[in-house]
Amino acid sequence: MTDATPDPYAAPMAFGQRMQILRQRRGMTRDVLAGLVGMSTSWVKRVENGQLQPPRLDLMLRIAEALRVRDLSELTGRTNSMRVDLFTGPGHPRLAAVRDAIDKFPITADQPAPPAEHIRARLEHAWAARHSAPNHREVVGALLPDLIGDAQLAAQQADSGPERRAAQATLSEIYSLAQFFLAYQPEPALLWRVAERGIVAAQESEDPHTIGVAAWLTAQAHRDAGPSHFDAADSVTYSALRYLEPLLADASDATRAITGALQFEAGYTAARRGDSGTAWRHWDKADQTAKALPKNYFHPVTSFSRAVMGAHAVTIAVELRSGTESVRQAAKAEASAIPSRPRRARHRIEQARGYQLDRQPEAALATLKQAFEAAPETVRYNGYARRIVLEETEAASPDRRRRASELAAQIGLLAG
């Protein structure tokens, strides 16, 4: 006798049984799943009980999106069929080298660390490259191993208290950069290890901005882990805001920007919960923080700025499952004003989600094409984009099927 959740892969199971087990593993109620896929709670129950046949492809993909399954075989059980990766992108060719650098934590070293200013300049170059390169994972993945190793040495070899705190701040920010590289790759344990190291280094730095950045990324990691982790995401976000907001009167632009980014994160998680009032209230607060920043200011880690608030509004509307409001907000948001290629591509993906919610599949597909042109690697690793493209390969329109299939081939969606 055991209380463990059954393994949906241990023996042949019906689709509904798999769906129920995966839903329960995500800590999700039937009501929540029903709302996310646009069906009734009784429909979810009947599917899980085997009273209804497995749904059509477009609805199955929405279920996969809501449950964040890695590939469709987790739902269908057809492990011998063509694999379709959804919310975990492919392992990047640079992943092994980055993993080795993270795992190789230096206890002693024969060589001196590079000067702190040199490491900081390389880190700033890496952030700039991430925002400007269409193949940003490739560029960042090439820079990270040496950055990680040198920053670890610098933190270890710092002599004075101020030097040690500055070195820890730089190390924490390098771990933040590593989290962007690792996101949506098949290394969740490595991502969490880096997140935890980033938090420890941030605390050691005693720097408000560094602490805010580490909290922002940790809250995202919790939220992306599913509804059962939303409370943890909120706990991190609100704790960071309680620490930062009293400091704002004399804070730097960077500290004010990370505070605004955290204010939006609180709204983002609320939107995931379906709490419209709380979501938009936090967006309004973040918008006021953005308006207090210089007109052209752009935070290098979070992309927080005046320019990104329109994109954030689209995200809130999409997460609240309002197609009409998503399209309305998308019409107001200027994608070209966002200077970061990956952030611009992410905004286009959110726009595409809005168009699909509003039953405008032609616009959704065209917008994903724009996202791919801005930053191919962003689309390649984004589960929402992958789901929309895959769904459109089954469209009734031959032209839409053709264009979706071409985009699917470009992003490497279907893997045998």
H and E order: HHHHHEHHHHHHHHHHHHHHHHE
Shape: globular
- The main sheet orders its strands as 1-2
- Please tally the β strands and state the result: 2
- Helical fraction: 55-70%
Q: Which strand-content bin applies to the residues?
A: under 5%
Account of the protein in words:
The chain has helices at residues 15-25, 30-37, 41-48, 57-67, 73-76, 95-103, 116-132, 136-157, 161-182, 188-205, 208-224, 230-244, 253-273, 276-291, 309-319, 323-332, 341-357, 361-374, 376-380, 383-392, 398-411, and strands at 83-84, 414-415. The protein is built from 21 helices and two strands. The radius of gyration is 22 Å and the shape is globular. The longest helix has 22 residues, at 136-157. By secondary structure, it is mostly helical. It has a two-stranded antiparallel sheet with strand order 1-2. Among the domains are: 15-84, lambda repressor-like DNA-binding domains (434 Repressor (Amino-terminal Domain)), CATH 1.10.260; 91-206, no CATH class. The two termini are 39 Å apart. It is 67% helix and 1% strand. Helix 11 (208-224) packs parallel to helix 13.
